[in-house]
Amino acid sequence: MFNTNLQQQLLQPRIWALIMGIILVLLHRLVGEVNPAIDYIFFGIFVILIGIPHGAVDHLVEEKYFQKQKKPFSLFRFLLKYILQILAYALLWFFMPVLSLSLFLLLSAWHFGESDMQPAPRHVLWKVSQMLLGTLVLFFILMREPAFTADLIFRITRESALALNSWQWAAGNSIRIYSVLMVSLILISFWAQRAEPLKWQPVKWINFILLLGVIFFLPLLPAFALYFGGWHSLNTFDHMSEFLGEKKLVWRLWKAALPFTLLAIFFLGLTALLWSGLLSHIDPLPVLFIFIAVITLPHLLVMNKMFSEKRS
């Protein structure tokens, strides 16, 4: 009954996300030149209302993990470790932007695949399938605007020719990359299913395919927002609710995320205010991207522990 209730709670937001994506696609197709503000508003709605909150309850997940491990939990130690991980990754970005970007893409691909293909068995072939699925989805999103992605990579890596050339090669060979990833995913998932079966959820995967179909017709920023907020974050809320127990229903979990969500929005707003006044000479897009990357790292680590605990 609990899992059924969770699915019912999440089905409606997923449908609304899909409908909003379709409306935006129709605007782009029928109107033609859409005001960029509409894409930014769409991006903000999905990232602020769903994306940020899904990472703002990591402390609850970590506390539950410690309880299951029968270890004492300290919120202060958790936050200190969280902040130190952010600072360490920020330093790596400062000194080695190309390596940091590569690490971020690999971790994001793994995180997306791990979350989407839950509850996957512990077999190593399923881990490979998760990585392939996440890589396929991430590459698919980045290819919505290859030129924009190339410009973004060039700027966030401080004009690295290696990073730019690598992306241009990938964009130029996109059909081959799609083919290799898709065939590998199908074959390895088939072998994984024979080794240790996964209970598939047809409705979930039909929704997933429909969402990717809508994303195909969107520019990069709203495409990422639709996947990140309208799919990945809702899935993660589902997994966290199940992990935290029956009393932690999705809407309550979202409400529990409000303090840290508002704190994150406050710092984003403060950063934007400082940039507009004192730091307007600095390119804001790389700073925003790196900010998202560094706060993502500790979240990925918390989620990985949660999924490992659930599988065990």
What can be said about this structure in brief?
The chain is mostly helical and 312 residues long. The protein is built from 14 helices and no strands. Mean pLDDT is 85; it is low at 1-10.
Task: Write up this protein.
This protein has 312 residues and is mainly α. The chain has one domain (2-311). It is 83% helix and 0% strand. The chain is built from 14 helices and no strands. It has helices spanning 2-30, 36-54, 58-68, 75-95, 97-116, 124-142, 146-156, 161-172, 174-195, 202-215, 220-244, 250-256, 258-277, 284-311. It is globular and about 50 Å long. The two termini are 22 Å apart. 28% of the residues are buried. Residues 1-10 have low confidence and may be disordered.
CA gyration radius, whole angstroms? 20 Å
Mean pLDDT reading: 85
| Strand and helix order | HHHHHHHHHHHHHH
Task: Provide the structure class.
Answer: mainly alpha
Task: Show unreliable segments.
Answer: 1-10
Strand content: under 5%
Count of discrete structural domains: 1
Q: Quick one: overall form?
A: globular
- Report the helical percentage: over 70%
Distance between the termini: 22 Å
Number of strands: 0
Largest sheet: none
Count of helix runs: 14
Provide key terms for this protein:
312 residues, mainly alpha, 14 helices, 0% strand, disordered N terminus
Q: Secondary-structure map with pairings?
A:
Blueprint: H1 2-30, H2 36-54, H3 58-68, H4 75-95, H5 97-116, H6 124-142, H7 146-156, H8 161-172, H9 174-195, H10 202-215, H11 220-244, H12 250-256, H13 258-277, H14 284-311
